[in-house]
Fold each of these.
Amino acid sequence: MEDKLIIGGQELESRLFIGTGKFSSHEIIPKVIAVSGSQVITMALRRVNFSNEQDNVLNYIDKKCILLPNTSGARNAGEAVRIARIAREAGCGNWVKIEVISDNKYLLPDNYETIRATEILAKEGFVVLPYMSPDLMAAKRLEEAGAAAVMPLGAPIGTNRGLMTRELIRILIAEIKVPIIVDAGIGRPSQAAEAMEMGAAAVLVNTAIATAQDPVQTARAFSLAVQAGRMAFLSGPGAVQEYAVASSPLTGFLHK
Amino acid sequence: MQIRVNGSLETIPFSLSIKEYLLNKGLKPESVVIELNGQVVKREQWERIVLKENDELEVLRFVGGG
Amino acid sequence: MSFADKLLKYQEFPFASYLAGVTGADIERTLAKEALVERDFLNLLSEQAVPYLERMAQKAHQLTVQNFGRVILLYTPLYLANYCVNQCAYCGFNVTNRITRKKLTLEEVEKEARAIAQTGLRHILILTGESRHHTPVSYIEDCVRVLKNYFDSISIEIYPLTEEEYGQLVAAGVDGLTLYQEVYDPVTYDEIHLAGPKKDYRFRLAAPERACRARMRAVNIGALLGLQDWRKEAFFTGLHAAYLQDKYLDTEISVSLPRLRPHVGNFAPRSVVSDRDLVQILLALRLFLPRAGITISTRERAEFRDNLLPLGVTKMSAGSCTSVGGHLEEATEGQFDIADQRSVREMHAMLVSRGYQPLYKDWHHL
């Protein structure tokens, strides 16, 4: 069956986005990408540390993949905009994941600054995917500001706690027209499947894969879980009898 | 002369191009992104642009991130 | 995208074949869903859904109680004037009908207000025909100033206005708009609106949205059931409400289900809507739009209204009168005939006996 996710005019087969942080070595990344079939890969931009030479993560990402640089490190809209522009100039394409975090304790995104950055960057022709706290009003404003998708968090970054924000994400899925991509917090393949079954358009997974004992096998498990969840969503839920047959019918008067 | 690199003051010789600066630092130029005084500088221009006193240089690189 | 654009997308949609192809399994799936999409709504309006009405009713009842409680807001219409320049084939106020034309003076408005307020009602719906000459926006404003002393919420059901004019009335104290598209099918619309400014389909279609933009607190829409194939008309009504709900989160959107009533003049409904059909529309709307208000007016018979009560209704009119000066001694001919003649007190007693709380004041306009 034809089921493609379209973001920023690009057709995607895979609904699993993968982050490249926290891997024990860059060499694992290409294997993870290959086995998962993922087509959208995130990375970050950082100042070079001159005393500790490292190589560029881009060298480990298949050229066929869409690069989704994030703006991590940005504490306000201005910084996020600056990072996005640098990434584009550096030849990363025009996709950007906006991540504005001004809270160092919980690492929760700043929705207000994220909306401002989205507005500016969408006008400059970026395909903007904002990472956000699942708040309906904020998501509506992101949509209005031109976000290509909205990426609510399932749980705080790196916690692997699953869909803690389930009910709020459910609301976003029901009310927001652009794709909803669950980002952050997904710790297990079953949680990714659940998000997809609820109707999320895709999920972004990083920590759960990068810190697994066997990241390659875990990536494969996530990929299958995302496909299974999507398939379940598309095929419709089984008809669970939600309401017991009533003792006093409400429509009896129609038969009199 | 002094310039600011990634936020820290640094003393460098005169008439150094961006590319020469990076090579002096032992960096592979193809692996980094350069912002000079708030403007991104395209790789093709690195050989031509010579660093001046008080320039603010950002040397950035793509790293793993989610 | 405007709602007109959205409607356009359905212009080529093969309703007849889609509706004929709906199966029992489709209805089962729709009923199992938590949130319905447009196709689910259409499934519930199909002939195939009829055997499922009882299950739909149980779910509709449960959703309504969950979202609104067992509460019914009571209001009453107040006709300010019946001057009208339009020729709507189905309406008693049609300019070609020879009826007594009247417009209340501000003193008469005050007398009516006092009489209605004595029944305990605090929500009022004021109506006029379409005559910018006899009942200009400034007249409505003057009436609102008088009515504010008696009512907590004032809604209007008048000719469509511009966004600025809606803003003007909101500033004067109006907090609700009722405006029926009458019929969403543009061809029928043109056929039955024989003459007058109301011929402008699109100006009317976009009016509820203009009111939302002007920050009207509540907007109530509907199709006059019987003018066209009710399944399609009910479907478009639901889509319209969903469109407004999605776009204007701060506006309370509700839907009315007016069925054509006998009136002065001759007009036979083109699509007869039976009681069962009306129940199906009500239930499908409730399942598609769990948070929308649903109004059943005194156009419907008392006993039937009582039966509809648990199926998703949230607002009912009481002590209604569709003539100008109806609460005074000299009244004109009504716009349509009232089927439920019960007084506010009788409605109150009926609601309480069925375990519902009658609500007179839901909102206080500051």
Note: The first strand of chain C starts at residue 71 and ends at 79.
Amino acid sequence: MEQQTGTFAVKKGLAQMLKGGVIMDVVTAEHAKIAEDAGACAVMALERVPADIRAQGGVARMSDPELILKIKESVTIPVMAKCRIGHFVEAQILESLKIDYIDESEVLTPADEEHHILKHNFTVPFVCGCRNLGEALRRIGEGAAMMRTKGEAGTGDVVEAVRHARTVLGEIRKIQNMPKEELMAYAKNIGAPYELVLETAELGRLPVVNFAAGGIATPADAALMMQLGVDGVFVGSGIFKSGDPAKRAAAIVKATTHFRDAGILAEVSKNLGEPMVGRNVSQMPEGEKIAGRGW
Amino acid sequence: MKIGVLALQGDFAEHIAMLKRLGAEGVEVRLPKHLEGLQGLIIPGGESTTIGKLAVAYDLMEPLRAFAKDHAVWGTCAGAIFLSKDARREQPLLKVMDITVQRNAFGAQVDSFEADLDIAELKQATDTTHPYHAVFIRAPIIESVGGDARILSALPDGRIVAAQEGHLLATSFHPELTNDARFHKYFLSLAS
């Protein structure tokens, strides 16, 4: 009997197992344990959470493999790690570490300002960020097996996450209602592969799992994104930059499951302590925004 | 037929879509009250630790155990772990099926795979002859079966990937990720 690894069904399949869950940014093995104990469905191993990357500036790169391995050894849930946009050697290194998912992420400083990684070349699956349908389908065309709307990472301000989710989901609703003969011109206008536009219109959703990311800091934020129609949420700085990470993490997990139950949402939102301080995106200079990275 | 799908976390929507294809109604189960009026329950793939913690937090453990006594219940991957009596580590388990499982038995995601299985009972029950194409994602194996539990399918090296104990069913793989509805049909026959 032949066993086939690295097929698209298997890559996409792991993201399907993460649905309805919360993926948490962690910078130490201790954080990873807290996240797992709180019910995270996966963790993102990195050296600095986005809020610190913003505050400290400089070039943000793939994390030290030693740190990633330590985090991997500390939990049984899937572990993801980030590489820079276009940096396929960082991706090769992460694959050799047997990481479960690679995030080709705009949160790190891009290595290529024109091209993303050809993700079909890898056995390990990739997740990528998007702000609109064209960007999502270009990444899927390159082999991404999972998407996340970008939001504005490290701000604790959910406004961009909402904007990007509404944009992607709104464009899908639009193409579902278009006569088929208009889809070629639409694909051309948004710079997306025609076949994927057709598939998306037929499915009424992206052909891969789509999470929300970038600015989710409270249980209500997570439930808001779920009600808008995403499949799950990434929480970066929102947990470990808050006053009581374990409690907030568990509350966000519960809110993501019971996202339509306002009574439960009220219950889990009680006494969570200080949220991350946050930065108002509308008052942020354009040059400081990172969602624009990605082509 | 109304079949519940535990919707705490994981790919419950895929199971509900498959049930719909077969003319059954899939109902999302998040709280004990959602179990009323159901003829069977599917526990989907996902993260077994996440599903277990949420089941404990919302007092589902005892209602699920009671439901499994006289209804068909099927666990896929994380669901199979959740049904087992032993997963070789400390985590919430229903312990309703006499199987011992090992989590992530094939390694990391890069070792996840697809393979054809020859499942005599499934072929017979659905009156078909072609092999069953199975998708394994960071899959567990069933190390051993005890009591009334029996092996439904094993890999050529002998590792058990599907087991049945009366009206309880456990699979390491994900029929909900394929277009082959035979396993769901088989489960509906146990539920009716």
Note: Strands of chain A lie at 4-5, 22-26, 42-45, 79-84, 101-105, 126-130, 146-149, 209-212, 233-235.
Amino acid sequence: MHSKSIVELNDGLKKGEFSSVELTQHYLQRIKKLDSKLNAFITVCDDSALEQAKQADQRIKAGQSSLLTGIPYAHKDIFCTDGIKTSCGSKMLDSFTAPYDAYVTELLKKDGAVMLGKTNMDEFAMGSSSETSFYGPVRNPWNTACVPGGSSGGSAAAVAANLAPLATGTDTGGSIRQPAALCGITGIKPTYGRVSRYGMIAFASSLDQGGPFARSAEDAAYLLQVMSGFDQRDSTCVDKPVPDYTKSLGDSISGLTIGVPNEYFSDGLDTGVAQSIEQAIKVYEKLGAKIKKITLPNTNLSVPAYYVVAPAECSSNLSRYDGVRFGHRCDDPENLEDLYERSRGEGFGDEVKRRIMLGTYVLSAGYYDAYYLKAQKVRRLISNDFKAAFSDVDVIMGPTTPEVAFKLGEKTADPVTMYLSDIFTIAVNLAGLPGLSIPAGMVNDLPVGLQIIGDYFSEAKLLNVAHQFQQETDWHKQSPKAFS
Amino acid sequence: MEWEVVIGLEIHAQLSTKSKIFSGASTAFGAMPNTQACAVDLGFPGVLPVLNSEAVTMAVKFGLSVDAPISKRSVFARKNYFYPDLPKGYQISQFELPVVGKGSIDIELEDGESKTIGITRAHLEEDAGKSLHEDFQGKTGIDLNRAGTPLLEIVSEPDMRSAKEAIAYMKKIHSLVQYLEICDGNMQEGSFRCDANVSLRKKGAEKLGTRAELKNINSFRFVERAINVEIERQAEILESGGKVVQETRLYDDALNKTFSMRSKEEANDYRYFPDPDLLPLEIDDAFIEAQKKTLPELPDQKKRRFIDQYALSLYDASILTSNKDLAAYYEQVVDASGKQSKLSVNWVNGELAASLNKENMQIAQSPIKATDLGVMVGLISAGEITGKIAKTVFEYMWNGEGDPLAIIDKHGLKPITDSAELEKLVDDIIAANPKQVEQYQGGQQKLLGYFVGQAMKVTKGKADPAQLNQLIKKKLK
């Protein structure tokens, strides 16, 4: 049952081959049996999931089903869920239950999707390995000694291990694409403004964007369809009609121009990964695409610019966690200062504190121009690089990450090394572009991700380009043995 | 040494929108604590601000009324600091690019001259909540009902040279925002607040002296007193060769003193940066033009019209137009009086103003309806009642009896015009005062007043003094 595509699941539900309750029970049992090896879930919602499934079954029976009615999914614990704990992977919010749904949660509910539980993640989405979670690290289903990537590691691991057919994620600097790559699944970060950020706990507001994880581009199209759309409660959300993402999945890509940036094949790239990507590009050539070498000259500036902008925004976004109204509060504060210092000191982990300090520093009087303003200028340069590229090519392709999944603890001691695992994904966030990652090979029995970047609001095209590859190859069909 | 006082004001006008500047919660004053704060106002995780367009409209109206350019593109910025009544840990304000640019406004000085005060800028921002230190024994209560209430911060140039000028400016802005119906001006409820930057410099010096910022002064009277005691304090320091420290000071009205709140060194580094949750605010020409058309008659325009149309003195017109409600009241009085504009102003700025003042009431609370007062003024000018009777009628109206004609009827205040009745009355007085009659006829003409007075006394003021005059003169010939 858990190897079925969304099309197959919908078909089975409609034909009455199985019910949503049965399907949900199947996944809940798998989570119960297997998640102890992965730690992908923070909260499993047995009761509410079965209740939602029951309602979905009624809807299906009444012939009123929508795209994901009765289909289970795992929700990143960064999306607020009314009445269900939303921790953001932090001790700070361990006791927090939102009294409202995120817009994405609302849309999924409305569509009749069944929420299996809330997935583990790097604390406040700050990390590239899902090791900074207050709830302990997530493990990669392909090799549990390895990380699944981050920050949406729980969601990626859950889909890769068939604990959920679909999962949500958020991507601020690569947090969907990098774990998708490391776990061998499909993940798409939409154009900034495509998916509402309302109720999605902010890390860096100008970069954060929600998106789907799935085993295939086709499955991802279904979830993205439901997650997308204008929400007037998010001022940065774009009021633009959402195309039918599944409709264009059959389009031919003959004549498509693929840009391959020199900068993405530099020294830091693992040779095995490089070979896989080159092979993948050859598949596209076979499908009639034209390959064009391009240059994105400011690529090397993206990581430094990101580590100014993102911490600056996060230092301000995380000020609300002060122990006054919700979340962690220290015991017996002596005075206001003590309340702030200890509540925040105890509630936040090291990586979060590091970024708050970094962000506070770059916004300080006397440093603002040199760091924050400069980073904004770099951001513009990076956008211009892409703009120039997209006047010549339809999509850009390269590796999602410089190497395959690394071992737990391997990079925790050196933040800069860790930050560099997002070197190919970060620029896309800085420019606000959509990007996706699909599995495109294996190195040392670990998946390699191919990143496909498109112009603004070209999600339909990206999904089809990915889908065409998945019609020719079966990397996306492989599953880690222990979880197949 | 002679010192020149330099004052600039930062006025916070609470915009009278129905909902908050970035959320849908109500802005009504006086609700139970924390009942008018939604998840956005509480700064809950994941919630986002959405700009209230009504607040923007109001800011634009203000800008237009002080001849300031409206920014086609302005930016909301975060002002970061920690305080329990600031839920998000930052205030959304405008920093580098405010919605209203440089404008100006004219104030009238006591000598009748007018002076132009520059307005540096006006920007939109959200208010914080309130920290309540009383009632919680060693703890602090937080009420977030006010959090997110829209404010227009109006920053003046350091153009004022005395507390009196500062007050005149403040009153002018106070009047203007009420004319524009963008702020209710209620200072007790904190809808209109003021911080004053005060410094001294040697007379004739170019460079500004070091300033102190006075906070928390919430009435016109306190602003004047606070500025004056601060001027004294700074003058004393400078006279004794000391240096004024740049700091924020609080005014204590009970002690009539200012106290240091925090020095420049202790000041927060607010780490302003553009709020990534809000797009830049873009305002097009069509919108500005549309707002121009909705602007009401502004105080200065109204004042000029009153002088022209009603032939009022600058002084009277200034008083009447300083308050939109008062001006409207006056116009109603004039209409009901049969265009007796001068007599009307005497009653409105005289008797009525004095009575309101005594009871500390606003014109809107006046127990006398403008139409009633107007009718009364009309009766006076038609000679139907005397000024003296009018005062009695006014008393009854003040006590809520309404219609002056009914009052006159009910209390028997009709004037005695029957000449036979008057003649009899005069005859009685003459008969009762032989000595005075003798003196009058002996040449003491001024005794005429005495007889008229006696007659007025007997008639309780209901006779027409001129008619009496004539009659007595005739009788004593």
Note: Chain B touches chain A through 29 residues (CB under 8 Å).
